[in-house]
Amino acid sequence: MSTKTLTMCLGILMAGGAFSQVQAADTLAKIKQTGKVTIGYRESSDPISYVSGGKPMGYAIDICNNFANELKKSLKMPDLKVQYKAVTSSTRIPEMLAGNIDMECGTTTNSIPRQQQVSFSTNYYATEVRMAVKASSPIKSIADLNGKAVVTTQGTTSDKYIKMNEKGQKVNVNNVYGKDHSDSFAMVTSGRAAAFVMDDNILAGLIAKSSDPKAYKIVGPVLSSEPYGIMLPKGDVAYKAIADRVVTTMWNNGQMATLYKKWFQSAIPPKNVNLNMPMSTSYLKLKAKPTDAGIN
Hints:
Structural class: alpha/beta
CATH architecture of the largest domain: 3-Layer(aba) Sandwich
CATH superfamily of the largest domain: Periplasmic binding protein-like II
Helix content: 25-40%
Radius of gyration: 19 Å
Mean pLDDT: 90
Number of domains: 2
Strand content: 15-25%
CATH class of the largest domain: Alpha Beta
């Protein structure tokens, strides 16, 4: 998480800490009182969470819609209103702390540092961090990035892996940041950056919907394996229990595998491109043993 994001979070806690604590302690009561549940989503994290035709969709959105349907049953509120609010890497935690969203369904890594501010459901996906470059690029490893501009998205965890490898392999890069994933990818497209370090599913989605998918490739070693979970208000045990039950059930009854095929191995909007992404080793490990564990 960036320093800017941390500052925003502290400001919210100082200005409205009492409300944040109440909201986190009884989200179900809040939802019942307001008659609505708000899902935070990402606009360009294809195929996990993105917008097509003005509508939020994706692997995570389907999971969170299942969560919302379970809330309707648990609260006996069949007419519960489900609304959506776009968030970014920098705004997702502040929006949660402010009570503006009740869950965040995107590409947010379940990390131990983030668990100091928010909670996570049982993880629903595991990504592997790599890098996207132009197909004509000779870059194949972190060492090949020496002296080049490398982009990551502001407020994401991938940036730390560049820095770790800079130190470990004595690689000197110029770190630049996109305001969102589309902006970061555009820097590679325009030549302002030689590589974009990010979760492989996000990279694959951006390449698939680009004007020329064959012009890019995903290369390099797996820099990290990171779990995604539904981000929830911190410390709300009853609310998290419902989210955990929904996600775990989907793993156990085969729904998650069906969703994977739908979003990663079938034609998807807006260009009806098939990512043809096989389940990674990290995903298969999570599938075999679902957990809500975060990483450092």
